[in-house]
From TrEMBL:
Keywords, in A-Z order: Signal
Stretch forming the signal peptide: 1-28
Protein name: Uncharacterized protein YgiM (DUF1202 family)
PANTHER family listed in its UniProt record: FAMILY PROTEIN, PUTATIVE-RELATED (PTHR34408), GLYCOSYL HYDROLASE FAMILY 19 DOMAIN-CONTAINING PROTEIN HI_1415 (PTHR34408:SF1)
Source taxon at top rank: Bacteria
Organism listed in the record: Psychrobacillus insolitus
């Protein structure tokens, strides 16, 4: 019996929030706008064409509810008048935020008259946009998709208080106090907002040009401390996630099969030279390389692997927000536009084209068809001074002791 009483009370409470007509609730997630006529007179057509039948004429200053606009025509409603008008003769009126101060509910009418049927009843303390008085003690207001006339003395100016958005993803703003309301924007974490009213877990807020209902639990009285994640920390977090998923591997020794076959970006973890090798169980070297910064290797999944750097599956690079190994190396070492010793993949780390490489003393350069362990040498040389070459998409440029000049 107790459960029945509680449920009945809940239904009664919710019914007080708002009682809409069917056509108003059917499109709760859509968004209607209030406009006013800015011409001395404006004809309302039955259809969106100049040749259509005129069904009414509006006067300057009349408020209308706009459902949609297309090809210069606006689908509108004013009271019982529903039709189409030339959209260029409509303007957005100024509005103020008001609060329903009638404890018995704020009655909304389609026309400013007590004798017409009620189209909606809004709950006490609900926020409406007031577009101004229309005479005889009536004002035109909007709550979500409910528009109409209310008694001016039943709406007042709300008292505001300051709160802050306190959720990392920000808070969604809706046109009504319901998850079924239209999503009209997001206010980012830490933003100061003015709260005009709160009821049933929702608060009506304003912040700059944004206004609407947000879930109250995502607001706090104290400004949250927002910890800004540095690019380095973000990269470490993302790489660790890939390691836990088996798409990246940190430095260490791995037995045959622990690292799947395929191409990997290699990222040095120390300032000095970092070693990589894959060896058959007999001890015979399949391939090996010493990296000064970053590069690319091909895992054959045919032997034991020793790596002093990170190995990251190429298909996972996009999840790190980079295109190639160079981008990871730059973030982890806090450098920009790195162009020194390394193994560059053309198209990922460097664009195809003509380049000049300059050495500080003796340097080495090689142009390869693939990563370490799966390539042929196209060109290589030791030089002291400058070395010019053209590189193409998909090739690999390996430099030791030199700097790329464009």
């Amino acid at each position: 019996m107790k459960k029945i009483i509680i449920s009945t009370m809940l239904v009664a409470m919710l019914s007080l929030i708002f009682s809409f007509s069917l056509d108003e609730t059917a499109n709760a997630s859509s968004f209607r706008e209030v406009k006013s006529v800015n011409a001395s007179s404006l004809v309302v057509k039955q259809k969106p064409t100049t040749s259509s039948t005129t069904i009414s004429t509006l006067k300057k200053g009349d408020f209308v509810t706009v459902f949609s606009q297309e090809n210069g025509w606006a689908s509108i409603q004013k009271g019982n008048i529903i039709g189409y008008v030339n959209a260029s003769f409509l303007t957005t009126p100024k509005s103020t935020i008001k609060i329903a101060n009638s404890k018995s509910g704020l009655v909304v009418k389609t026309v400013p008259s007590r004798s017409v049927p009620t189209s909606a009843t809004l709950q006490y303390n609900m926020i409406v946009e007031d577009f101004g008085p229309v005479g005889n003690g009536w004002s035109f207001v909007q709550y979500g998709n409910v528009t109409g006339y209310v008694a001016s003395n039943f709406i007042g100016t709300p008292l505001t208080k300051v709160k802050y958005v306190n959720t990392a993803s920000g808070v969604v703003v809706r046109n009504i106090a319901s998850t079924s309301g239209a999503n009209i924007g997001t206010i980012v974490n830490g933003t100061e907002v003015k709260v005009h009213s709160s009821l049933f877990g929702w608060s009506y807020v304003t912040a700059g040009n944004q206004k609407g209902y947000v879930v109250d639990k995502y607001l706090s009285t104290n400004k949250p401390v927002i910890i800004v994640e540095t690019p380095y920390k973000a990269m470490v977090r993302k790489v660790n996630a890939l390691i836990s998923e088996g798409r990246a591997f940190t430095d260490g020794s791995y037995t045959i099969g622990e690292i799947p076959q395929g191409e990997y970006a290699f990222i040095s973890l120390a300032d000095d030279f970092n070693y990589y090798s894959e060896e058959y169980l007999s001890g015979e070297i399949i391939d090996n390389e010493i990296f000064e910064s970053f590069g690319y290797v091909y895992v054959h999944e045919a032997g034991n692997i020793q790596t002093e750097g990170l190995l990251i599956d190429l298909d996972s690079l996009s999840s790190l927000g980079v295109t190639g190994a160079k981008g990871i190396y730059e973030v982890l070492n806090n450098v920009k536009n790195y162009n020194d010793s390394g193994m560059y993949k053309v198209g990922l780390d460097i664009q195809a084209g003509y380049y000049v490489i300059e050495s500080s003393s003796e340097a080495y350069v090689a142009l390869l068809t693939g990563p370490i362990g799966r390539n042929d040498i196209i060109d290589n040389d030791f030089f002291d001074g400058r070395y010019a070459l053209s590189i193409s998409e998909g090739q690999y440029l390996q430099i030791s002791g030199g700097t790329i000049l464009k």
